[in-house]
Amino acid sequence: MNIQANGKINLTLDIIGKRPDGYHDLVMVMQSVGLHDGVQVNLNDSGRITVHSSSAQLRDDESNIAWKAAKAFFDASGIAGQGVDITIEKKIPMEAGMAGGSADGAAVIVALNELCGTGYDDAKLWDIGVTVGADVPFCITGGTMLAEGKGEILTPLPLLADFVKPPVILLCKPEIGVSTGKAYGAVDNCAPETLDRLRPDTEAMKRALADRNLQGVAENLVNVFEEVMQLEECSEIKRTMLHMGALGACMTGSGTTVFGLFDDSAVAETCAAFLGKTFPKTYLTHAAAKGCVIERIS
């Protein structure tokens, strides 16, 4: 089975506090995008889980989230002795705040549910996915969703992809990266009164989506990681996008990809060409209605 594993952006990202288990309580509006990895899942009788990736940066052992996802699915379903070979064609940049690894893990879970005939609904797949990573449940279903808790409590929202004129989405990732731990540390060290000033208006974003108001969506793009860390290259990219016609721009996840929403494809293409001269990891894409798309069963 071949799966299109879509990446994601955060239209909003708020951090409410730190939990006793070390995780943070989040409130996010998450959106699937068309930039995707290709994940092929083949059952066999080897009794082993194997992973192969097109990226030299991605380890092909038990530390790979796709491997962990297969193991979690077999453990949860009680399927023993089944072998599976997973091949990943990486297109989503790594350490980009776009849930590339989580998308791969989600694709494996979706594929195995089909190939093994287990017939689990999304809620069951989310339960399996969250044991692998907090973004995996969203990536399984995708679209436009409110995500709370660690990211596993999901509520569907009106789809950005269903707007009369959906935005063109421009993604740009600088070479710099930020570890998730460092990003959360910066938020944890931020004074509470400062953090309160930087929070997104999640309710305003939800209203804009309900009203199919693209300008309202663009005006309410806020990510507390971006506001707290103030990374110069990300700020430069954002300024360029806004100067060149983006309705709004924001960093996604813990960074460092910046995305811009455009209502004119020609304007977006011009901006992409300009940014691409400095930042090779620049991509034009669109809002996607799903996280995982089954492309082919053979």
Summarize the model shown.
α1 packs parallel to α2. This protein is an alpha+beta fold.
Description:
By secondary structure, the protein is an alpha+beta fold. It folds into two domains: 2-157, Ribosomal Protein S5, domain 2, CATH 3.30.230.10; 160-286, 2-Layer Sandwich (Alpha-Beta Plaits). Helices cover 35% and strands 30% of the residues. It is built from eleven helices and twelve strands. The protein has helices at 65-77, 100-115, 122-130, 136-141, 180-188, 192-198, 202-210, 214-219, 224-229, 232-243, 265-276, and strands at 2-18, 24-44, 49-53, 83-89, 144-149, 153-156, 168-173, 222-223, 248-251, 258-262, 281-286, 292-296. The strands form two sheets. Strands 1, 2, 3, 4, 5, 6, 8 and 12 form an eight-stranded mixed beta sheet that branches. Strands 9-10-7-11 form a four-stranded antiparallel beta sheet. Strand 9 (248-251) and strand 10 (258-262) form a beta hairpin. Helix 1 runs parallel beside helix 2 (100-115). The radius of gyration is 19 Å and the shape is globular. The termini are close together. 46% of the residues are buried.
Round the mean pLDDT to the nearest integer and report it: 94
Helix fraction, binned, reads 25-40%
Number of strands: 12
Total individual domains: 2
Can you summarize the main beta sheet?
8 strands, mixed
User: What fold name stands as the CATH topology of the largest domain?
Assistant: Ribosomal Protein S5, domain 2
Which structural class do you get from the secondary structure elements?
alpha+beta
Strand and helix order: EEEHEHHHEEEHHHHEHHEEHEE
Low-pLDDT sequence parts: none
